[in-house]
């Protein structure tokens, strides 16, 4: 897609995401947000270092990997979000717009073009469209990015002998630390000092209030556990954070939230902040409540019922969702739901300020290949996102009735329709 501030970027196909040339929040009935790396803005170096640390501890103490892993010094700047792990080879890959391998590493050794061609040919990765497959695992969020450095370290240490077993252990290390509020090593560290890992966000709080003052309903839709959501939102937005949303959904299990028929369960918080989840499925949703689980069909019917009460039946409900996960928040939401998608892509800041370059010396830019052509994820964003922005805090700097257009600056990038070869057509 035509990317502001990067004239070298070229496009192989026109963008067709969202509204095309402009977007207006005040035209939405509902605006939803993901939690991690969207509503909540993490201090990346601190939280990625923690994810790496707890993952290594899991491998050593729960999977009997050598204790020398504990001596590894994590390089937060090594991997790029969006890289793909080839589980069978232990390679780390960067893809171009057609899902062909542009760069690759085995351990910390850069593969030659001849080696890449021998392993992958000059064709797209078979069966890969963005989500994890039996062979390929994409690092689609900042929680997964440390796995790139860890895989390369395991290869160089001679510990990547059975790719299926090793990658299963790596995924188990993430699951064990994120699936139980009382288990693992990750949540205890956040409970001890949440502001070591997340920013306070008074501007975002004000923006959410302004949305609601304009008659726009807000919802939070997160995969995170209720207690974790409560901890981070208390720290970032204040103890009355639930009042910023018309409805809150936790432990949503995206992307299956969008194609399964799981029930909702009501959630309340005790005086000490612990969540209490009802054992009985909810038969309806109510404004101002918190729920766990659920499914999108039930949620949309609720949105439609609210719209019918306020404006009468027969009107399309306009829904916008803001999220960072390249697959479950962006690609899946747009393809399955046709909602407006605001992609939270921290790397957008590099397009407007070279000092904010989130690329690496090895991998280059998140958005383009070394020859200036679109990367795989730039193409996904161009095809599925209505608006790309580096953070919700940047959105909060604009009035609710602002019209976002493709020429906006200040870390905003709006994919537009009618783009060919990197140039906008009138």
Question: How does this model look, in words?
Answer:
The chain is of the alpha/beta class and 426 residues long. The protein is built from 11 helices and 19 strands. The protein has helices at 44-62, 113-120, 146-156, 163-178, 186-192, 202-213, 226-237, 296-311, 326-337, 376-384, 392-395; strands at 22-24, 30-33, 84-86, 91-95, 101-106, 109-110, 136-138, 217-221, 247-250, 264-269, 275-281, 289-293, 319-323, 340-344, 387-389, 403-405, 412-413, 419-420, 423-424. The strands form 4 sheets. It has a 10-stranded mixed β-sheet with strand order 11-10-12-9-8-2-13-14-15-17. Strands 6-5-4-3-7 form a 5-stranded antiparallel β-sheet. Strands 1-16 form a two-stranded antiparallel ribbon. Helix 1 (44-62) packs across helix 4 and helix 9 packs parallel to helix 10 (376-384). It is globular, with a radius of gyration of 21 Å. The two termini are 15 Å apart.
Strand content: 15-25%
N to C succession of SSEs: EEHEEEEHEHHHHEHEEEEHEHEHEHEEEE
Number of strands: 19
- The first-to-last residue Cα distance is 15 Å
Give keywords.
globular, 30% helix, ten-stranded mixed sheet, 426 residues, five-stranded antiparallel sheet, disordered C terminus, alpha/beta
